UniProtKB/TrEMBL annotation:
Top-rank lineage group of the source organism: Bacteria
CDD domains: ABC_PhnC_transporter
Domain ABC transporter: 5-249
Gene3D superfamilies: P-loop containing nucleotide triphosphate hydrolases (3.40.50.300)
Molecular functions per Gene Ontology: ATP binding
Organism, scientific name: Paenibacillus spongiae
Xref: PROSITE patterns: ABC_TRANSPORTER_1, ABC_TRANSPORTER_2
SMART domains assigned: AAA
Keyword terms: ATP-binding, Cell membrane, Membrane, Nucleotide-binding, Phosphonate transport, Translocase, Transport
Pfam families per UniProt: ABC_tran
Taxonomic lineage: Bacteria, Bacillati, Bacillota, Bacilli, Bacillales
InterPro entries: AAA+_ATPase, ABC_transporter-like_ATP-bd, ABC_transporter-like_CS, ABC_transpr_PhnC, MetN_ABC_transporter-like, P-loop_NTPase
Name this protein carries in UniProt: Phosphonate ABC transporter ATP-binding protein
């Protein structure tokens, strides 16, 4: 499999504080499902946000689909961003707008400022919106305002908005941290389907080790801004989990429903 994303010695320092990320290097293959785990403040969100340049890295290189993203012109940067969908813990939807309007916002990266400002979408985009909402089980909610939806439904709208971009890569920043176990499973199953059936590469930040074990091809462990593990779920032994989370075993709270438990998952 070819590499979709390569991070080479990536670093990030906010202000004069300690390094949020230090010499991060790894690569992700096309079609891979990768989870990033680590304690609170380890740098997981910063890492994800550096990849699409929502946060500007302080050093190192990010190569996406063979192109060094630090060298992109403004136009090329916009095109690059449109190929990366992102979903967030708190969904980042416009609550007073309808589900369909929120989903269509995912097309803004492909539009002129004027077409975007007037909300002008073509028939193909509207059909696509309908199809994606159907795939995510949201057809009936299409014209509802987003503030009338449950958390799980809101996250599915977030996924739909990312999918309509026709992304190569989905970045998911704690997508299930605000959801109950059954909604969390629905979201993770959709992400798996997006990965396996649609072939979209998925990179997800997770707090739940057992969820990472169940869904990922590869798991990356981060502690204090550094990579301390990069391997398969099978290679993630109890000792290695403790190494990722440091001595603070209180971080290892596994509070998912039994349906999430993978065979042999470690519960501390
Ligand atoms: N905008 C910012 N300005 C200054 N420091 C920041 C900013 N964002 C994050 N940090 C710091 O960078 C470090 C990494 O934070 P980050 O949010 O990336 O960690 P995280 O692993 O995602 O944590 P959590 O799991 O709690 O969300 C922390 O020390 C944090 O305080």
């Amino acid at each position: 499999m070819s590499k979709l994303l390569v991070l080479d010695n990536l670093s990030k320092r906010y202000n004069k504080d300690a390094m949020a990320l230090e010499n991060i290097s790894f690569s992700i293959k096309n079609g891979e499902f990768v989870s990033i785990i680590g304690p609170s403040g380890a740098g997981k969100s910063t890492l994800l946000r550096c990849i699409n340049r929502m946060v500007e890295p302080s050093g190192g290189r990010i190569v996406f689909d063979g192109k060094d993203t630090s060298r992109l012109s403004r136009g090329a940067l916009r095109q690059f961003r449109s190929k990366i969908g992102m979903i967030f813990q708190h969904y980042n939807l416009v609550d007073r707008l309808s589900v369909a309007e929120n989903v269509l916002h995912g097309r803004l990266g492909y539009k002129s400022a004027i077409a975007g400002a007037f909300g002008i979408y073509n028939e193909q985009e509207k059909r696509q919106c309908q199809q994606i909402l159907q795939t995510l089980g949201l057809s009936e909610q299409m014209f509802k305002r987003c503030d009338q939806l449950s958390g799980g439904q809101k996250q599915r709208v977030g996924i739909a908005r990312a999918l309509i971009q026709q992304p190569r890569l989905m970045l998911c920043d704690e997508p299930i941290a605000s959801l109950d176990p059954s909604s969390s499973k629905v979201i993770m199953d959709h992400l798996r389907n997006i990965n396996k059936a649609m072939g979209i590469t998925v990179l997800v930040n997770l707090h739940q080790v057992d969820v990472a074990i169940k869904y990922s091809d590869t798991i990356i462990g981060v502690n204090k801004g550094k990579i301390v593990f990069n391997g398969t779920p099978e290679e993630l032994t109890t000792d290695r989990i403790h190494h990722i989370y440091g001595s603070d075993k209180g971080e290892l709270i596994m509070d998912e429903a039994p349906s999430f438990k993978a065979g042999g998952a470690v519960v501390v």
